[in-house]
Design brief:
mainly alpha
Length: about 220
Amino acid sequence: MSVDASWTVLLRSALDGAHADRFGVPPALIERARTSTLGRRMLARRLENESQPLFALASASGCEAALQHPIAFFSGERLRGAAFDLGALAFAPALRARVARDEVLLMRESIGVARLSFVLSADPWPQGVPEAVRHCAMTGLARAMVDAETLADRVRHRGRIELYAYSSNLDPLLGERVKLAFAPLTAGERSDAWLPPAAVARYLDAANDGAPETHS
């Protein structure tokens, strides 16, 4: 694949998978615009403001590495589902510590039974959970155990951080492509990951092969 063709493929994937809030127009208009050449150009111009590094001409000669990773082609919905899974995985040390009936019911409602089961059976830190990670997970979960929506939002946000940090470390342009699948943040993206890169890689390999079946 030529350099220009590689860049075009990456930009097309970013445009197709970008979160609706990135465009600043009604979702129905976005869907219609994606079906025409003129509409896609309009959307691309709006998206350029959200990720100048990805759309810069200089990136045309340096994007082939990003396309070597399957998540470059994940749909926006799939990336957001992966973030939910990874967020739950990152909170695993704290989730395991919650055993009261009402807490378990809240976690099932907010995270989902399949996702919770997946997390509780996984071991992202084979050498033991770092104490700093355990502390952050316990503190973060305690603040989110208010209702199902608050807990789900906290887990999704943590997963977004994990996915962005992992993809950016693989390739900065891949991180930009992944970032666009989520609603914009006023404070910008964070990359203070808790999960080991190997754990994220194992999850994404399994997701690319069709498992785990946890997305919702």
